């Protein structure tokens, strides 16, 4: 390391997960074996999103910036031998989206420090990531209450001459969930043919869309449950449940480049029949109390005015507005010493799930346990769930004492 023995960034109270609008403070620590000349010591805090057309690439094709602030903590002079500590403080934009890491893009937040030295001397940099969690309250999403249902019918030919029809109906008990809640899936299969169907299955699917000139859709099956078959001429009902693992929230309010959607796919393998049920995954679970309040307010919005015309209804709740995309900075410091760590999604909160519903079909008796894909955790690895969690609120995020790496234990 030469003259520079230590160059680190420390956040106050070792905090690494923040909320939009919150302030982030800490210190830059410099330890020298001998005195050096410096032009300035600067600290930068920025957040941006970058996406690319190549998987796991960081040469961003499109970028947008959320905030970028720089302060000078030391002016031109001589840094003497020994240890020096410089405090800093920044305010995070209140419209910045939640941290995210995907196959084709990332939302990154970081603090960087620079020791700028005279010409022909070494410049030094240090970097430390932090994570942003902007809570998605499912109660703020319009039309999120009630059962989510769909139906599809399909004709097919078998044994060259015979034809048949399959009618598939499916529903989920809700339209919005939080991690560790249970999706109650109910399906009805009417086999109007003489041939038995293939196995029925239900899957939780994640679709991440990267908005480029030619959008990229990264679709992954997060979890899947499977049942049995339906004999010819029979109509059967199938019930199953899917436990939601730790996942990034639906949408990314404030980000224009990355969209996240979830849906439950119910399908038959033979003949190939499938339908999808869109759902939302958030951080604050649905509240029965708020639902009853919405129902009480609904009739008042349709009352007629004295002139006989209906009065205008109150506007539906919506997600926060998103700022216009801005180009993100591409700093190219002459780095001889850096501590870079790629940020991922912040920890997801813990919420207790609903009770299980037993299956009622006799022919669909081949129930299997839920299969969770390893890709389910690709966006939020190593997440930790506290045990004492209230059902209708966000969990407190447990923080380690070792900085950002403490969130992802081996």
Automatic annotation (TrEMBL):
Pfam families referenced in this protein's UniProt entry, alphabetically: Arrestin_C (PF02752), Arrestin_N (PF00339)
Family the entry assigns: Belongs to the arrestin family.
GO molecular function, one term: ubiquitin-like ligase-substrate adaptor activity
Name by which UniProt lists this protein: Arrestin C-terminal-like domain-containing protein
Biased composition regions of type Pro residues, renumbered to the chain: 317-332
Arrestin C-terminal-like domain ranges (all copies): 1-137, 162-286
Annotated spans, Disordered: 286-370
GO CC field: cytoplasm
Annotated organism of origin: Oryzias javanicus
Transmembrane segments: none
GO biological process: nervous system development; protein transport
